[in-house]
Design brief:
The chain is built from 10 helices and 19 strands. The strands form 3 sheets. Strands 3, 4, 5, 11, 12, 13, 14, 15, 18 and 19 form a 10-stranded mixed sheet that branches. The protein has a 6-stranded mixed sheet with strand order 6-2-1-10-17-16, with helices on one face. It is of the alpha/beta class. The protein binds flavin-adenine dinucleotide (FAD).
């Protein structure tokens, strides 16, 4: 089967990696370099990490068994999220270059600096910016959050976004583990984060719909010192990057013999903004169908198998809506959890937001109390 893939980002390359042994793969990327421009932090759960292949071990920057959650108006209180399995920080550009090398070693072709102008779902063809047109048996649309082609094909209509911005900082003091920071002066809709890369470098990031750069500056200038235990804060910003985070419910995933993957079809986790988990689930389904010879059968079977992921994500959207309705914002929920003295939550599944049974009871109690108050 001849497969054309639009976009050599995480989803385009991971899908190419998993199918290139069995199908003829051609990937089109508008940029001249794999992995750039950067936008992602690179945090993934252990089972997603394992699926990426053993070589990705060499692209690992750090790993964690807990995050600390803080609300900036309660600097002395914190909630520890203790993970059953580790969370890995991967060097995404390096991992994507590894995916690209493997794809090419299997005979797949990656065309860099080849922007795709449009995709025609009627004859399964890709038209390039240079005016040429190529036909395929199957097309994978992995164009990322801009989703221009996906929208033209009518898979998604309106997509809501947050803007995520990040800075890599060189600091004097080590950060022990990641922090997730809530507070109205940081983000109304989301949160900020600090993730240690190594003893001397960390990522400070924040996502919101409005003025994220100014809010990230505030996070660094006003709050960073508390987390580094430093009386005098000294840091140097070595890199700034970011991108759009789709916050809409998942779009339609297929049209004719075209399959959408990743941010292009909004399979982001709504409460954390993580997109790599959804990509892992989509690619795993695609890989399991690699022996099918008919593209029609493959697309039909894929759409039915990917439904479970979509239900799971829609449930997470529902939880997010309920939180906003009941507590007005995620910031207020965090304050309620802190005030009710819940200071440690065991996280059984990082991606599916499954927490330990005793924590479920505590959170249910808190929600029930807030319903009757
Ligand atoms: C600030 C921030 C932090 C994040 N942190 C995390 C995290 O820690 N963990 C996590 O799981 N997720 C995280 N995410 C989300 C994650 O980065 C995305 O879900 C993921 O990158 C989506 O991969 P993708 O392949 O769908 O899109 P992308 O990685 O954006 O790749 C799309 C590719 O398609 C190319 N392209 C687009 N249009 C065309 C065209 N017309 N022709 C040719 N090429 C084209 C682009 O150049 C790009 O290379 C973060 C996102 C942001 C913004």
């Amino acid at each position: 089967m001849k497969v054309g893939i639009v976009g050599a980002g995480f989803s385009g390359l991971l899908s190419a990696l998993k199918i290139a042994k069995y199908m003829d793969v051609e990937v089109f990327e508008e940029h001249a370099r794999i992995g750039y421009p950067r936008h992602c932090t690179g945090l993934v759960s252990e089972y997603v990490f394992n699926y990426l292949g053993s070589e990705v071990g060499e692209c690992t920057l750090n790993s964690f068994n807990r995050y600390i959650v803080r609300h900036v108006s309660r600097p002395n209180d914190e909630i520890e999220l203790r993970f059953k399995e580790r969370v890995y920080l991967i060097d995404r550009p390096k991992a994507e270059q590894y995916f690209a090398d493997v794809v090419q070693s299997y005979g797949g072709i990656i065309y860099l600096s080849h922007g795709v102008k449009s995709v025609d779902a009627r004859d399964t063809s890709i038209s390039l910016m240079d005016g040429s047109k190529k036909r395929y048996d199957l097309i994978i649309l992995a164009e990322g959050s801009r989703a221009n082609i996906v929208r033209k094909l009518g898979l998604c209509r309106e997509i809501k976004y947050l803007i995520g911005v990040q800075a890599v900082l060189r600091v004097q003091n080590e950060l022990d583990h990641p922090y997730v920071l809530f507070g109205d002066d940081l983000s109304n809709e989301f949160f900020g984060w600090l993730v240690p890369i190594d003893e001397k470098n960390l990522i400070a990031g924040l996502a919101d719909a409005v003025e994220p750069y100014n809010k990230l500056k505030r996070l660094i200038s006003r709050y960073l010192r508390q987390f580094l235990n430093a009386s005098q804060l000294s840091y140097e910003i070595t890199e700034i990057f970011g991108g759009l985070i789709p916050m809409s419910k998942p779009c339609n995933q297929v049209i004719n013999k075209v399959i959408g993957l990743g941010d292009a079809v909004s399979v982001t986790k709504p409460l954390s903004g993580g997109g790599i988990y959804g990509i892992y689930r989509q690619v795993r389904e695609l890989e399991s169908l690699k022996s099918l010879c008919s593209p029609e059968d493959l697309v039909k079977e894929y759409s039915s198998r990917v439904k479970r992921l979509l239900h799971e994500l829609r449930l997470q959207h529902l939880i997010k809506d309920l939180i906003n309705r009941k507590f007005n914002s995620i910031n207020n929920l965090i304050l309620r959890i802190i005030d009710s003295r819940i200071n440690c939550i065991k996280v059984v599944d990082y991606d599916k937001l499954v927490i330990g049974p005793s924590e479920i009871l505590k959170v249910l109690k808190l929600i029930t109390l807030s319903v009757y108050n």
